[in-house]
Amino acid sequence: MSGVDTLFAPATAPGRAAIAVLRLSGPATAAILAGLAGPLPPPRRASLRRLRHAGAVLDEALLLWFPGPASYTGEDAAELHLHGGPAVLAGVAEALVALGARPAEPGEFTRRAVLNGRMDLTAAEGVIDLIEAETTAQAQQALRLAGGGLHALVEGWSGRLASLLARQEALIEFEDEDLPGALDDTVAKALAALSAEIAARLDADAGAERVRDGLDIAILGAPNAGKSSLLNALVGREAAIVSARAGTTRDIVEARLILAGLPATLADTAGLREAGDEIEAEGVRRALHRGEGADLLLAVLPCDAPPDAATLALIARRPCLVVASKADLGPPRHPGALPVSARTGQGLDALRARLESEAAALAPASGAALLARPRHRAALGDTLRWLREAADAQLPELRADALREALRALGRLTGQVGAESILDRLFAEFCIGK
């Protein structure tokens, strides 16, 4: 990329540390390094150098030089492994600005890698998912994406689709020529096979977004049913206020936990009842809305009171894991309810095991899931729709048009088509230095 700035940013977290890594990328990287440290070291070999600027020694640091295009960004790039004091980092940053570099914006390094062909959009998304991964399952899925797993899959599909389009156009352009009679049947069969493969991938990866984003679990029930105590017992801390006074929880209280290797957000909600004022009414509305969108719903029926009509209606309307709270005060009053006491710990292990099982069932069955974002599924869904339209087309020209649209939809997935429309949104998610 000619005419671009040379940029820099710390690649390590701010604050005191033994080491702070500062990255550079851009056409002036070599000149800037020479101005700081003298002759360039051999490529991709760490070299101990004394950094100087304006007659002052800034630090004694390890320097790594990555001449383009064999670098992360595809440009000339470098890393400075400095001592981690804030004053050292500030002094080197000031020198870099004086030598012609500028501080990077979030995601600029990876954006340049995409624009220079070092990775596609799906790999860039894998990079940010890897940075943000909380669990092993998330990290493994992100590594597959960052390593080009989805790119390779889409490239294979695109190649097959381009071949089908070429065959179809041959049928149109040379319909008066002596082409093999089975050519049209070959296109139809290959089209059906590709459609079935993409549909199977969409089904197999149905839970990949849950791995990336985590599960949403809502706790619903009547006021004073023990919802807040249940949340606190599950997460092992006082996340929600517990009181004998009914209606203490007005807004949604959230806490995080890990289930079957997946992050989960547990939400305590306002009690379901006829509201006494507009604030409580809004709390009930939010509770029901959260329950409708949750991946898993815990319906709480206390053992010390008859089942309330609102919670029973909820259980009848959608699948729930029914918890009989306050089990130390009596037996469950609803068939199939799991008895749990937040006070004594009774049933908590069984509840956690059940939640682990439910979480595992919501994750992808395959260990190689790749469709981790809504746009992945949307692009493949559009591709499949066009493939099916091609299969149903009555005219060869219409079939060819549908195949071209399918190829364009696949291109949107990797960024070969329409990349600019999502670049700004994607890289705004990145941290500075990546």
UniProtKB/TrEMBL annotation:
The keyword Chaperone does not apply. It is an enzyme of class 3 (hydrolase). Its cofactor is K(+). GO terms for biological process: tRNA methylation; tRNA wobble uridine modification. InterPro entries: G_TrmE, GTP-bd, GTP-bd_TrmE_N, GTPase_MnmE, MnmE_dom2, MnmE_helical, P-loop_NTPase, Small_GTP-bd. One of its GO terms (molecular function) is GTP binding. One of its GO terms (cellular component) is cytoplasm. (6S)-5-formyl-5,6,7,8-tetrahydrofolate binds at residues 23, 79, 118, 434. Binds 1 potassium ion per subunit. It is found in: Cytoplasm. Gene3D superfamilies: P-loop containing nucleotide triphosphate hydrolases, Probable tRNA modification gtpase trme, domain 1, tRNA modification GTPase MnmE domain 2. The keyword Signal does not apply. GTP binds at residues 224-229, 243-249, 268-271, 341-343. Its main location: cytoplasm. SUPFAM superfamilies: P-loop containing nucleoside triphosphate hydrolases. Keywords: Cytoplasm, GTP-binding, Hydrolase, Magnesium, Metal-binding, Nucleotide-binding, Potassium, tRNA processing. Its EC number is 3.6.-.-. Mg(2+) binds at residues 228, 249. Pfam families: MMR_HSR1, MnmE_helical, TrmE_N. CDD domains: trmE (cd04164), TrmE_N (cd14858). Homodimer. Heterotetramer of two MnmE and two MnmG subunits. HAMAP family: GTPase_MnmE (MF_00379). Exhibits a very high intrinsic GTPase hydrolysis rate. Involved in the addition of a carboxymethylaminomethyl (cmnm) group at the wobble position (U34) of certain tRNAs, forming tRNA-cmnm(5)s(2)U34. Belongs to the TRAFAC class TrmE-Era-EngA-EngB-Septin-like GTPase superfamily. TrmE GTPase family. This is tRNA modification GTPase MnmE. It comes from Muricoccus nepalensis. The lineage of its organism: Bacteria, Pseudomonadati, Pseudomonadota, Alphaproteobacteria, Acetobacterales.
